Amino acid sequence: MKEAMIIGTAGFTAALSVLRLEENNLTPGQGSVLVTGATGGVGSFAVSILSKLGYSVEASTGKESEHGYLKEIGAATIVSREDVYDGKLRALGKQKWSGAVDPVGGEPLASVLSQIKYGGAVAVSGLTAGTSLPATVFPFILRGVNLLGIDSVNCPMDTRLKVWHRLATDFKLEHLEQLVQQEITIEELPDVLPTLLKGEARGRTIVKL
Questions:
Q1: What does the alpha-carbon distance between residue 145 and residue 16 come to, in Å, rounded to a whole number?
Q2: What percentage of residues in the chain have a pLDDT greater than 90?
Q3: Strand ordering across the sheet containing 57-61
Q4: For domain 2-149, is the CATH number 3.40.50.720?
Q5: CA-based angle 123:129:133, to the nearest 5?
């Protein structure tokens, strides 16, 4: 039960993102895969799962203090938020990544799309950076890039079963406990929730009932 709660919605969403990228023919031999918001729940699981599957993972974070954590869970390279999005949106940028897991959205997602290699894909599941997507059609019509929407709420049961099966087999993480930042009681929630809203949390927080 504790393993299931550590995984939770965030781990499920990350696993579904990886599954959808695989269905878009992503393989480890195609080059590095970017994970944005890498210290969050979805990001941490995505880094870990992709690394276990043999991918070279570039983890993006704005938290210099968490570089060691990201290396421990499988990141091959740490890149800053500015390396992903420097504040300037380009119709097309240099082709850097074969795919990406993005729980961030907004302008950073538009920047990521412009830097995906030909035929690659981005699995998007979040809106931390906003709901608007100021992208052009060029990555889609000139490089065949795909934007994959990830929804864990209304996901069909057959897909759910497939994802949980993968989480119990080839996606299963040996260092699952490393993704837990803290275990708290429900009475401690009011003190912990503000850290989530401020983006100060790392990995998962488990509430013990």
A1: 19
A2: 95
A3: 77-80, 57-61, 33-35, 97-102, 116-124, 146-149
A4: yes
A5: 65
